[in-house]
Amino acid sequence: MTGPVITAASATTITVLNAVVAAAVSLLVAIGTQVSLSVRDSNARRYLRRRAALTDAQDAALALRGRVGEYGALSRANAGRPSPELEAAERRYLDARALLEVTLSRVDDPAVVAAAQRWHSAAEISFISTAEVSAAREQQEWQAVNAAIGSALRSKEGTTPRS
Length: 163
What we know:
Blueprint: H1 2-78, H2 84-105, H3 110-127, H4 135-154
């Protein structure tokens, strides 16, 4: 009578082992799915953070462009003489410059930051300085910073393509 008892015990053992294997596979699939979802969500959050930083930087650069032009025009018109309008324009310019610096500190793309800094230098020379500098250079740098931001915004990662 030991034959049927062994067969019944073996069938029970096989059933238990199958259940354990199925549970282990289910657990591994659940863990793998959770890890995959976590990575995907992390990538999505990073992209949204990068996108927000890029659009904020672009908006700040546009505001600064207006303020540097306004301040430069008043500065040249006043020929270095202080005036309440010039002081107010200078404050607005300095605030806009500070805003760009803060927003650029949040940009996770060295190419965009470098392009914005090159444009800012060209804009200061073009709009404020008495030195003769072509407005075309400022325009060229302005287009370059917007092209870099646009490229980063269109990319899957939210950064400009690396060479």
